Amino acid sequence: MSSRRLLFCRSSKTYKGRIFCLPSLFALIAIIYLFPFNSVGQGNLLVTPRRVVFDGSSKSVDLNLANIGQDTATYAISMVQMRMNEDGSFEMITEPDEGQQFANKNIRYYPRTVVLPPDEAQVVKVQLLREKTLEPGEYRSHFYFRSIPKLVALGEEEADIDTSGISVRLTPVFGITIPAIVRIGESTTKVTMTDVALNLEDVSAPKISLNFHRTGNFSTYGDLTVEHVSPSGVVTKVGAANGIAVYTPNLKRYFQFELTQTEGIDFHSGKLNVLFSAPNDVEPEKYAEAELKLR
After folding, report:
1. H helices within the chain, ranges in order?
2. Pairing mode of beta strands 90-93, 73-84
3. What are residue 45's DSSP bridge partners?
4. Was domain 17-151+171-184 assigned CATH 2.60.40.10?
5. What's the CA gap between 29 and 117, in Å, rounded?
6. Residue ranges per structural domain of the chain
7. What is the pLDDT confidence band of residue 150, given thresholds at 50, 70 and 90?
8. What's the longest Cα–Cα distance across the chain?
């Protein structure tokens, strides 16, 4: 499908009697500008939103893919299984860990391959299937958007090639993963923060570290805010980290990030208030908070 630039609805598509509006790149950039933490990008591909969650409110989600590069790009879309480590990193797996359940058998999506010319966008439809057959709990897989490299056709190789030696051509392959989560039942999840510490070894880049502890049946996902409170009571925001997750079955995650070195802030006095709350694109809700007194 092609798109027309600078139109919010570039074209329409009929599927099973329903008409869908396919957004243009202009519309996607507007969404990303207004809600920057709800998109994820790598290379020249932008994906919005950056999480797919089925929690009973809807059975279908639109993923918006946009090519912000200067060349036509092809992306293969698949589903993979991933484990989150305690430091927040991910690794591919084929079998679920104890307490982990995959979601791919209950999710359908189309198309599976997308060709995007420069400055164009396309919608990928995602649907939840057979959710009534699932036991209460959380099911998670990940969408994988993999860039397919261009292959040089026979007869188009460079003319001046030194055939006296061995040549190796490395073609980078870019990929983006976003979680796809199915939740069945009511949430019993709670989260706390412990071991809050401030690292001032680099005075130009103070760092705060802490541990998240998750209990209950679902993952937790939110934004972290750090405020400095001076001895006289002046409150200044000195740090923010958005989109922090602790996925099932993990019960703990270590997290560290750099604070803002704001003029007039003395990290040797007062205290730091740390707040973990719901993402800024949903209803405000406080998940956990902690306090670090400074010397």
Report:
1. 25-34
2. antiparallel
3. 42, 67
4. yes
5. 16
6. 17-151+171-184, 190-293
7. confident
8. 75
